[in-house]
Write a structure and sequence with these properties.
Layout: H1 10-13, H2 15-18, H3 23-26, E1 42-45, E2 52-55, H4 57-60, H5 66-79
Bound molecules: zinc ion.
């Protein structure tokens, strides 16, 4: 595994999303050792509810927790 310089790491570029990095499941990989655009899938755990999902850091830059997203969407639909 090649280590990125800190300025190119996921941790540096996406500090908010890095809070949801599932350290225990991704051991020994950390957002500091991962390029922001890496395509390898890793685990995430959402801050709000602790939902877990797996996606690449590359996708994580655009999308948050899919379970929260679905809950929110269903909530909106049920009120309509
Ligand atoms: Zn969630």
């Amino acid at each position: 595994m090649s280590m990125p310089p800190y300025e190119k790491s996921f941790a540096f570029k996406f500090p908010e999303a890095s809070k949801e990095w599932a350290y225990d499941k991704n051991k020994p990989l950390k957002p500091e050792n991962c390029y922001a655009g890496t395509a390898r899938k890793v685990w995430w755990r959402c801050e709000a509810y602790g939902h877990e999902w797996k996606t690449s850091p590359m996708n994580r830059r655009k999308h948050g927790c899919p379970t929260c997203y679905n809950l929110l969407r269903r909530g909106r639909n049920s009120k309509a």
